[in-house]
Amino acid sequence: MTKAKPTTEIRIGKIKAAVWANESDNGIRYNVTFSRLYKDGTGWKRSDSFGRDDLLALAKLADQVHSVLYQSLPEPEEEPTA
Predict the structure, then answer these.
(1) What is the spatial distance between Cα 62 and Cα 26, in angstroms, rounded to a whole number?
(2) What whole-number distance in Å separates Cα of residue 50 and Cα of residue 36?
(3) What does DSSP assign to residue 13?
(4) Nearest in space to 34 (alpha carbons), one of 51, 21, 46
(5) Long-range contacts for 33-37 (Cβ within 8 Å, ≥24 apart)?
(6) pLDDT at residue 81 above 80?
(7) 22 strand-pairing partners
(8) What's the pLDDT at 78?
(9) Can you give the residue ranges of every domain in the chain?
(10) Residue 10 predicted with pLDDT over 70
């Protein structure tokens, strides 16, 4: 079985956002996961825990991902009025 890959990845320093496309009955839904990369010995690992010094980069990254998603997605359909 092939492991799913994110449609987009964006990084600021060691903080990374991965955008995932999930098909649903109502079309594609996008979810975002955030992780912090760190080195453990000789290998790189990731954590979903963030320290005080990571928070500004995390906020900026969330803002960037928000912009990417809204620029690349079609406008939502207008809800019918009764």
Answers:
(1) 25
(2) 7
(3) T
(4) 46
(5) 33/6, 34/58, 34/61, 34/62
(6) no
(7) 29
(8) 52
(9) 8-71
(10) yes
- Contact criterion met (CB below 8 Å) for 53 and 40: no
Residue 4 C-beta-side C-alpha neighbours within 13 Å: 9
C-alpha–C-alpha distance, residues 30 and 47, integer Å: 21
- E strand intervals along 1-82: 8-12, 15-24, 27-40, 43-47
Distance CA 17, CA 10 (A): 5
Distance (Å, whole) CA 31 – CA 40: 28
CB 69 within 8 A of CB 76: no
Q: What is the arithmetic mean of pLDDT over 52-62?
A: 96
Residues 7 and 18 sit within 8 Å (Cβ to Cβ): no
Per residue in 22-55, pLDDT (tens digit) is 888 888 889 999 999 999 999 999 999 999 999 9
- Report d(CA 74, CA 80) in Å as an integer: 18
